[in-house]
Amino acid sequence: MSSSPANLVPLLLQTCRLSGGPADHMAIENLSFAWSAGLHWVCGDEGCGKTSLLRLLAGDLQPLGGTLKTPPGGVFWADLKGPEHDQTTVQACWDQLQTRHPQWNNELLQNLSEALGMERHQHKPLYMLSTGSRRKVMLIAALASGATVTLLDQPFASLDQASIRVIKDFLHENAEHSDRAWIVADYEVPADLPQTSVLQMA
């Protein structure tokens, strides 16, 4: 797989012949790609390696080969679906993630929490939340993180329409940010959102 966005200024994250490791992400082989500032998409069917690619870009998985150049402003990635997070409260999750991201915006977090109806859940452990609310915990953190590169895996899944609109409005407003990249993995690009580049996974 090889592609690149038309505008590479500024270049925020770059792979060179990156290849996956264990069987769950062997779909990634000899990937060469670069992401500039803007809203980018990684698309494909179930099992094609979208999530594994995000985990590789985040450093959550180690590649078998290749190199990955990342920006000094950091990369945001969080997966709160696992049972190891069940007993952690919403606020504790945010507090833990904030320690990794020096550009964290607490005012934005509070605004998003209110817009997505999560204020009343702040002191609940994650096991008490619905799938959609649990996803909102991650999304709020991602948008408030201030990271140079933010990785989002199917951000609209399990959300109600009002919450989807909040997330889409935010992405639309920030798609042309001059020094941040948003890389979103999903089956396809929504028609109402911009696309700086699209990487189609086979």
Structural write-up:
With 202 residues, the protein is α/β, with parallel strands linked by helices. It has a domain at 1-74 and 182-202: P-loop containing nucleotide triphosphate hydrolases (Rossmann fold), CATH 3.40.50.300. Helix content is 28%, strand content 21%. The protein has helices at 50-58, 90-98, 106-115, 131-144, 161-174, and strands spanning 11-19, 31-36, 38-43, 65-69, 75-76, 149-153, 181-186, 197-200. The strands form 2 sheets. It has a 5-stranded parallel β-sheet, sandwiched between helices. Strands 2-1-4 form a 3-stranded antiparallel β-sheet, with no helix packed on it. Helix 5 (161-174) links the parallel strand 6 and strand 7. Helix 2 runs parallel beside helix 4 and helix 3 packs antiparallel against helix 4 (131-144). The radius of gyration is 16 Å and the shape is globular. The termini are close together.
What are the key terms here?
single chain, 202 residues, alpha/beta, Rossmann fold, 5-stranded parallel β-sheet, 3-stranded antiparallel β-sheet, 5 helices, 8 strands, disordered N terminus
What share of residues are in beta strands?
15-25%
Tally of separate helices: 5
What is the strand arrangement across the widest sheet? 5-6-7-3-8
Structural class: alpha/beta
**CA gyration radius, whole angstroms:** 16 Å
Briefly, what CATH class of the domain at 1-74 and 182-202? Alpha Beta
For the largest beta-sheet, the strand count, sense and barrel status come to: 5 strands, parallel
Alpha-carbon distance between the two ends: 8 Å
Low-pLDDT sequence parts: 1-9
**DSSP helix fraction:** 25-40%
